[in-house]
Design goal:
The protein is about 35% helix and about 20% strand. The protein has about 190 residues and is an alpha/beta fold.
Length: about 190
């Protein structure tokens, strides 16, 4: 979230501003960091609600702020089919692996356990399958022989901070087309 907010502020995501940061975790660090930058924040608890009820409340806030693009950052809940249709092709996610390899939780540990020589990160449009939608950007990170989950995660995060703003800028520009699961820059 901070990388996206700073990129919008610095003009690396042209004509964009972060309008709203929503979290379902009251203590999420992103809420405080957004407040520090003067960005509106909302905590929306999902407890006691169905997934769709929670998502409809979230959608109402996003519509109120006239949000054009939703960028998930540390949001660890699956979105309802209703929400995905409401914002079709307008939801980005970042994942710490070169999808389709190592989807889901603990991707860095999965990469180390598997013994891969390279891994990385992927920004993709969100669809109804976990870590599956059309790939917008990817960055490669070499796995070092002495890597731990922490050291590998740190290098992947540095690449995430580079490609997430680039992906957001591309999608907001509209200068792309989707062919199957591919994003083709125009």
């Amino acid at each position: 979230m901070v990388a996206l907010a700073d990129a919008a502020r610095d003009g690396r995501i042209p004509n964009a501003q972060i309008s709203l940061v929503i979290s379902n975790i009251e203590t999420a660090a992103g809420l405080n960091r957004a407040c520090e930058r003067g960005i509106e924040t909302i905590f929306l608890s999902h407890k006691g609600k169905t997934r769709e009820e929670h998502d409809r409340t979230m959608a109402a806030e996003l519509h109120r702020c006239k949000v054009d693009l939703i960028c998930l950052a540390g949001y660890m809940r699956l979105l309802s089919h209703w929400f995905l249709r409401e914002f079709e092709n307008r939801i980005l996610n970042i994942h710490p692996s070169l999808l389709p390899a190592f989807p889901g939780l603990d991707a860095q540990a999965q990469a180390l356990d598997y013994g891969v020589k390279i891994t990385g990160c992927t920004v993709h449009l969100v669809d109804e399958e976990l870590d599956h939608g059309p790939i917008v950007k990817q960055a490669v990170v070499q796995v070092m022989p002495n890597d731990t989950v922490e050291t590998l995660s740190e290098r992947i995060l540095a690449e995430e901070h580079k490609i997430y703003p680039e992906a957001a800028a591309l999608i907001l520009s509209g200068k792309y087309r989707i062919e199957g699961r591919r994003i083709i820059e125009c």
